Amino acid sequence: MLVLGIETTCDETACAVVRDGHEILSSVISSQIDLHNEYGGVVPELACRRHVDILIPVIDEALAKAQISLEAIDLIAVAHEPGLIGALLIGLNAAKSISLALNKPLIGVNHVEAHLYAAYMSQSHPIAFPCIGAVLSGGHTNLVQMHAIGHYTLLGQTVDDAIGEAFDKVAKILGLPYPGGPQIEALARHGNSKKYPFKPGNVKGRPLDFSFSGLKTAVLYTIKGQNLNGLGKEASKEALSEKQYAIDQSDKCDIAASFQQAALRSVVDRALIAARQCQCDTMLLGGGVTNNQALRRMLSEAAPQLKLLWPSAGLSLDNAAMIAGLGYHHYRQRGPDTLHLQAQASKGITQRV
Ligand code: KG4
Ligand code: ZN
């Protein structure tokens, strides 16, 4: 079965052709980093305009690279949740139009779930369930127990910023360009991670939930050299929006290393608890933050008993191959969606049980 995947949840316009959920015939990703860089983050209105401009050329390119005509496609899979609502609607309406015009079935895919599937489709052999799944991206931080494709129990999630968002915000405070994760990782390589005693946040009574906003604020306080506590919410917000702070390069590296260590530590700690609690020996990881080599090192050192399954190159950041791949399984499990399929801005993998 040939599946055309469409992804426009945020700031990547992507399209892919995937055979039988696994074999990637083409995967085209047009990143908008250049567009949003000067604003230090994604500007939804600009993202939507760019999606409108380039989605059709991106679809054409994916079909051409796969050497497949649109008529030969068997299923259209589209990321319809979660994401920027305007951006989601552009991909969803394109998918519906193709489905209607060519009388092809349509299936909606959850983008967060697809990040986990990206690690699954990166393996050459099927994996044994149940396993632990972690989505570590710019928009989401979720820990789940995965019973099968499409069946998850939510174990923990962030109560404030997503982990990638925390990297991006700390990078902004340090005056680094967007997206901040790779920039922080590069600086951290030259820094002393023990210089600043940053601590990841804990959520009372919920050991598998994450909190990163306090960590980000601790970095801000450190850089400002003063405690903003007591100045009120508005003052902190104002301070956070300031673009740059005078800070020398070696201190920048130490701050980046100390922040990164604390943020990644919280992932490693929770992964160990989750694996023990669910008696799982395999863990799937997805999302942009899985590109971080320090994370890969820390987790494999802390959990040598866990089989860690990472997305391969091209499948960790937002892409449409994971959408097409997961769409294939959903279609086989529950048949097509109708043209009433809706976009939803915020919807995680599953509700807490
Ligand atoms: O999964 P993704 O493409 O987008 C979302 O669905 O959100 O992830 C993008 C996020 C950004 O926040 C980016 O800073 C982060 O992944 N990221 C990293 C690294 N590479 C990308 N964070 C830490 N270390 C990296 N090497
Ligand atoms: Zn994503």
Description:
The protein has eleven helices and ten strands. The chain is an alpha/beta fold and 353 residues long. Helix 3 links the parallel strand 4 and strand 5 (106-110). The longest helix has 30 residues, at 249-278. The model has no long low-confidence stretch (mean pLDDT 92). It binds 5'-O-[(R)-(carboxyoxy)(hydroxy)phosphoryl]adenosine and zinc ion (ZN). Zinc ion binds next to helix 4. 5'-O-[(R)-(carboxyoxy)(hydroxy)phosphoryl]adenosine binds at residues 10, 137-139, 164-165, 167-168, 179-182, 185, 287-289, 291-292, 317-318.
Concise synopsis of the structure shown:
With 353 residues, the chain is α/β, with parallel strands linked by helices.
Structural class computed from helices and strand pairing:
alpha/beta
Which outline best applies?
A: globular
Q: pLDDT under 50 segments (min length 5)? A: none
N-to-C CA distance: 34 Å
Major pleated sheet: 5 strands, mixed
Strand content: 15-25%
| Topology pattern, helix = H, strand = E | EEEHHEHEHEEEHHHHHEHEH
